[in-house]
Structure formats: C-alpha cells, structure tokens
Known about the structure:
It is a single chain. This protein is of the alpha/beta class. It has helices at 37-43, 61-64, 67-76, 91-101, 103-113, 177-181, 198-202, 208-218, 222-232, 251-259, and strands at 2-4, 19-24, 27-33, 51-55, 83-88, 122-127, 131-135, 140-145, 155-161, 164-168, 187-193, 236-243, 265-268. It has a seven-stranded mixed β-sheet, with helices on one face. The protein has a six-stranded mixed β-sheet with strand order 1-2-3-4-5-6. The longest helix has 11 residues, at 91-101. The two termini are 19 Å apart.
Amino acid sequence: MFLGTKGGPRVEIGRSNPANLIEINGTRIVLDCGMGVSRQLAEAKVPLTSVKYILISHHHSDHNLEYGNLVYNAWVSGLSTPIHSFGPNGLEEMTKTYWELNKFDVDTRIADEGRPNPRPLLIAKDIVADGEFLKTDEFTITAFRTPHPPITDNFAYKFTTPDGVIVFSSDTEYNPKLAEFAKGADVLVHEALFAPFVEKLVARVKNGATLGKHLMASHTTAQDVGKIASAAGVKLLVLSHLVPGDIDVTDDQWIAAVRENYSGRVSVAKDLMELVLPVKP
Ligand SMILES: [Zn+2]
Ligand SMILES: [Zn+2]
C-alpha cells in the first residue's frame, strides 16, 4: 500500500510524505517514514503494533523524519514485539539518539504508566553493502546502492516474495543500472520528476535556483523513468514519490511523459492505494 506519495519534506494537505507498507503473508514492513506515516497507517486501519520491520532508503528527512516517532507511536499503542529496522549508515546512531532525545518522556511513562522499556523493542542495523540483508522463510530483501547526489548512502530495495518481485527505486538520479537490478520484476515503483513544472515549484521559495539544480541533478524525470521500465521489462510500473506532488500534474500528464520511452502498463500512485501481487495480466 502506498501511504505517502509526494516527494519532498514540505507537509501540506493533499498527498502525504513518502512511506509505503509492504505486507507479505501477514508480515508488515514499512518502507520509509516520511512525516505522517503513523497517521496514514491509522487511516489504513493498520495497527501500529503490527509492524515488524522498518526500512529506510536514505537519510533525507522526507524518508526518516517519523522513523523514531513511528516506533514511539507503536509503543504507546502497546507494542510488545520487536521491530527490526534497516537503513544506510547512520540508522543505528539515529536510533540511539532518538531515545536520548525522548528520554524524559519515555522514562516518565515507564515509571508512571507501567509501560515496558521500548528501547530493546527497536533493533536497528546499518546496511553497509549491496546484497541480500534480510531473509525469512517467506521473502528476501536485497539492497542496491543508487546515486542521489550528494547522497551516496542510498538504497533501492527488491522484495522477492512467493507472489512476485517488487522493486522500489528510492530517490535516485537517472540510473540505467537500476534497470538491471529490476530486470524481470513484476512491479517497479520508481520516483518521478515532472520536469516542466520544476520552474513553478522553485518559484515559491527563496532557495529556488539551488533547489532547482538539486531536483534536476538528483532525481529522475518521468521520461527517463520510462527508459528504466522498458529496459527492465517489468510487468507494471508505478510512479510514486512524485515531484511536484502538490502542484497539479494530472495522471495523464505523468503517463504521457513516461510513454515517450515506455509502452507497458503504468499507474500513478495515490495515497492509500493498494496494489496486490501477483499483478493481474
Ligand atoms: Zn525524497
Ligand atoms: Zn531524497
């Protein structure tokens, strides 16, 4: 399920910031914790205490700002089983400092409300290299480093499940190697930038010129996403992490841009949209 589909750190009405829920035979995995992830899970009627894994793709705030708070929110809802989290370098440190930041409240609630200590319930692990980092009887998850200038500690993730393979691109510059990583996957969820609107987007802020440069250099235009999907030969392409996600770009405009280089199935993600594997022919 797509919980938040707008790229970028601004919190506004409309699309929520990046977050996804992947459910494999009842195991719930949250991928990215943009602001609003707890609220979106509540909207989707998914108990926060049922989350087993959290993955962070990279340490931009639209992907990690609610990381600690999601676990905190699960804890005050009665979390009793551990959550394992994985992400690029810095996740373990962030986990430690999160509990320091919230020491007063957490210790108060343990003593005053009789809650268990939440710290052992969040087990963080930094991913240091490409490859498989999580394997259960039912699925494996593989990481693939992709450049998102100036960030290099940034991972696309592939979920290999009994019902099919789904790949999430993370934020990324146009990277043809992602097509190899996603080769033959059932679904590719790729970030997308609508280039004609970048000017409109940056006109709103003081740091416009620099922001415009960042957007063009470190994200992938919808046209280039089409190239990746064609080369990967996926059954379904889904655009999510839309930039801009808060100025109206219609689905038709997104799809027309992708179509310049891709003739397969494509859809534009919406918040709380569900996608079920295997994808129907
Ligand atoms: Zn982002
Ligand atoms: Zn980013």
